[in-house]
Design goal:
Keywords: Cytoplasm, Heme, Iron, Metal-binding, Nucleus. The protein contains five helices and no strands. It is mostly helical.
């Protein structure tokens, strides 16, 4: 497939950048704040929330793992139970296609800023493809029947 692995060590991503660019999501899509149970109905500045930062780190790590899998196996493999859960949670919280795009933009900005002069179109393409495949797998599991009833 020719994709680079993770294209950089995870340690190169500074938590400050993840925090800053995660907040970028709310500048682009302010209503997204209400999709996070820990931010709903608060006046909190999202960039100061440790749970939001933890979410951003999870997105980053899953995308990084996807990039490595694409490089090594030519495909992204995520456990069915994980995908079903992610699909259900995203559906339950009203996540739609444009939200995935805003998150991708924030992720790519984070990686670009973190690696600076090492940045290249090849690295951008590897991260973009990894994120797109992961997002597609999650979207494929966003089915009304996957919602958990309690």
């Amino acid at each position: 497939m020719g994709q680079m692995s993770c294209a950089m060590p995870r340690a190169d991503i500074k938590s400050k950048r993840i925090k800053h660019n995660n907040y970028f999501i709310f500048l682009r899509a302010p209503a997204a704040k209400n999709m996070f149970s820990f931010l709903k109905d608060t006046d909190e500045i999202p960039q100061n929330n440790p749970k939001l930062k933890a979410h951003a780190v999870k997105v980053f790590k899953m995308t990084c793992e996807s990039a490595i899998q694409l490089h090594e196996k030519g495909e992204v493999v995520v456990a069915d139970t994980t995908l079903k859960w992610l699909g259900s949670v995203h559906l339950q919280n009203g996540v739609i296609d444009p939200h995935f795009e805003v998150v991708k933009e924030a992720l790519l900005r984070t990686v670009k800023e973190a690696i600076g002069e090492k940045w290249s179109e090849e690295i951008n393409g590897a991260w973009e493809e990894a994120y797109d495949q992961l997002a597609t797998a999650i979207k494929n599991e966003m089915k009304p029947e996957s919602l958990q009833t309690s």
